[in-house]
Each structure stands twice: as structure tokens, then as C-alpha cells.
Amino acid sequence: MKDSIDFGSMNISTLFRKLLIPTVLGMVFSALFVITDGIFVGKGIGSDALAAVNITAPLFMIAAGIGLMFGVGASVVASIHLSQGKRKVASINITQAIAFSALLILILSALCLYFIEPLARLLGSSDRLLPLAIEYMAWYIPFLVFYEVLNIGMFCIRLDGSPTYAMMCNAVAAILNIILDYIFIFEFGWGMMGAAFATSLGTVVGGLMTLIYLLRFSRTLHLCRIKLSIKSLLLTLRNIGYMIKLGSSAFISASIACMMFLGNYVFIHHLGEDGVAAFSIACYFFPIIFMVYNAIAQSAQPIISYNFGAGQPERVRKTLHLAIRTALICGISFFILTVLCCQDIVSLFIDRSYAAFDIAVNGLPYFGAGFIFFAVNMIGIGYYQSVERGQRATIITLLRGVVFMLIGFFALPPVLGTPGIWLAVPLAELLTTFYIFGIYLKDRFIVYRR
């Protein structure tokens, strides 16, 4: 089950490839969680249902963001401890991350269910979409804890040297989701409940697979018993705080939730429910882009963190440059694909009879312009996380996901009309790329003067 991987001495290109291929495949399968829901909901239930799912999507992305935050934080800390031969400490770190994040998600899930109707309205639901949004949320919020465990477990399993098993966890969960989506929506006619329940059952299986690995099959990292003494709990809280500091910028999924939240409000204001349905197609397509870039960043992260802790800066530099080149190639390819195949992409989700079809076809090429810059931004954020510069990575994430996004959504539509709504996200990505290059050049200038 464990792959042949040595973070400290293996050739960088070979090591990166051994991590990247299964990680990309696993992330693509993970993206299928979202995409298959969109395809089955759009084809099996309708345009309004598609819009309603997109209304609830920020909750899912926030949960993913919390998982990435703790996964990155724990992985960076554990990588450095492993490079120093401290296996037990590394195992304690990942156990604390999984246990604390699971408890946090359970509390947040209970609050969301208790305030489910006002929450749906807060997320931008109209009266027409409200019953559909509530039905969907009611069947996936209770199972978010398994999605959380699956997200964090991926980092731990890859760090343990088993990226192929990590891929299988996502693959099994996604394939099960596809099969159940078809059965629940088309055969049983369960509608929104069926779509949500299919996704939930897939995450349950994936989460249990990660726990089984860490409990029974891991060789380096394993789950430990958490001591409940006051001293141990205080130490746990200190460790959790440091992981959050390192991984807070990985809350980039929450910035994607911010994109969806702001986009839903702007689109429904300018174009109504059909506009939200069109935007939802971009949001369903976007997870593939995000997951591939995230896979590149996550493949580089343990290599960078391990060699940073071991004091090998040349291996860190080589890994960073390889990750940037790979991400840029993917970004350019995704943009070209979006421009050439936008009608085919939209046709996967809805028929031409819906008004949202033409809105999405006209808007996707504008939206796709941001994919190139997003590639650079993801690698930049991942690099600063990996070398324990979490504050800088967090600033980049906040600028990209909140400040620049607000500027785009509220400044461009009055000037450019409907194209301006679609160009808001690319503008935020472009400004973020300029900022990253600016601080990179500043760091190089400081080093040169020394």
C-alpha cells in the first residue's frame, strides 16, 4: 500500500511526478462530487434546481476550506517533524487536526440545520428557490463531518507515502456518488433529496476509508489517543493554533465560497434566477480547475516542507519552479478548452430550451480568462504555506478572495454591463498575480542587497 517515496533524496522531477499523477486523479474524482450533482440536477430536475444547489454551494466550499486549512497546517508541521525524525510528534499533530476539525464541523453543522431557512435566505435564495435549497441542505449538512475527515486524511496519507491510496479514497467516493445520483434522481425520483443524499453517502465511504488507513495500514503516521489532562489540552490548543496560522491561507475554498456568494447576489440582481443558473454552471466547472491546481500545490507541499525543514534550499527552489511551470501549462490549456468548448460544457448541465443556456455560453469565455492567473496564485499561496510563512499566504488569499473580488463584482458591471459580471473573477486573479510578483521581486531585491 505504501509507495516508494523518499522526500529527502529522490530526484525532484521523479518525486513530483510520483505525487502529482495520483493526486491530480484523486482531485479530479473529488471534483466529480460537485460536477455530477450539477449534471444530474440540471438534466433530471431543472434549471431552478441547479440554481438552488449553487445557492447552497458556499457552505460546501467553506467546509472544504476548513479541511484544507487543517490538512495543510498539519501536513506542513508533520513534514518538518518527520524530516527531523520525530515520527510520534508528527502523528500527534495529524490526530489533533482531524479531531479538532471534526468537532468544529459538527458544531457548525448543528447551527446550520437549526437556522436552515434564514441561512438559505442569507446565501441569496429567492422565494422561488427557497424550498429546493432547504431540501438540499437538509440532506448534506449532517454528513459534512465525513467530508472533513476525507479532506484532511488526503494530506496525511500522501505524507505517509501512499498517494495512490489517497487517490482511491476520492475515486471510490466519487464513483459511488455518480451511481447513486442516477439511481436516486432518475430511478427513484427523489429529486433534490436524492442528489444531496448520494453525495453524502459517497463522502461517508471516503471518510471511513481514510480512517481505516490511518488506524490499520499506515507505516509512518497513525492516529493516536488524545490525552484529556489540562496540560495536554492546552498543548493541543497551542498546536491547533499554529496549524491554523500556517494553513489559514488554504481557506482558499472559502474564498471560492465568497466568489459564489457575491456572484449569486450580483447575477440575481442583474439577470434574475436564469443568471444564477448560468453562473452555477461556471461554478460547477470551476472545481475541476481548482482541484487540478490544488493537486499541483499539494504535490509540491510535502517536498518543499520536508526539504525546508531539512535545510536543503536548492531542492525547495527546484520544486517551486517545476510546480509553477506545470500550473501555467494547465492554466493555458484550461482557458483554450473553455473558449473552444463552451457550448459543449453548458450542454452537459442544461438544455438549449432554458434561458440560462445562452447566458452561460456567452459568459464562460470571459470567466475562463482567469484560469491562467489562478494557476500562479495557487502555487504562490502553497509555497508560502510550505515554508512556514502562513501570514503572507493568508494576506494573498484575503486579497484574492475578498478585497479584489469585491472590487471586480461591484466596479465592473456598471461599466461593462453583463460581461463585467463575468470578468470580475478574472480581474481578482490578475490583481493577485501582480501582488505575488511584486512581493517576490521585493524579496529578491532584499536578498541581492544583502
Give a description of the structure.
Helix content is 85%, strand content 0%. α2 (47-83) packs antiparallel against α3 (87-114). By secondary structure, it is mainly alpha-helical. It starts with 11 loop residues before the first helix and ends with a helix. It is globular and about 60 Å long. The chain contains 16 helices and no strands. The chain has helices spanning 12-44, 47-83, 87-114, 116-122, 130-140, 144-159, 163-187, 191-217, 230-247, 252-309, 313-340, 342-347, 355-368, 371-386, 390-416, 418-449.
Number of strands: 0
Largest β sheet strand count, sense and barrel closure: none
Q: Point out poorly predicted stretches.
A: none
Radius of gyration: 21 Å
Structural class: mainly alpha
Beginning-to-end CA distance, first to last residue:
47 Å
Strand fraction equals under 5%
* Tally of helical segments: 16
DSSP helix fraction:
over 70%
Order of helices and strands: HHHHHHHHHHHHHHHH
Give the integer mean of the pLDDT values.
84
Shape: globular
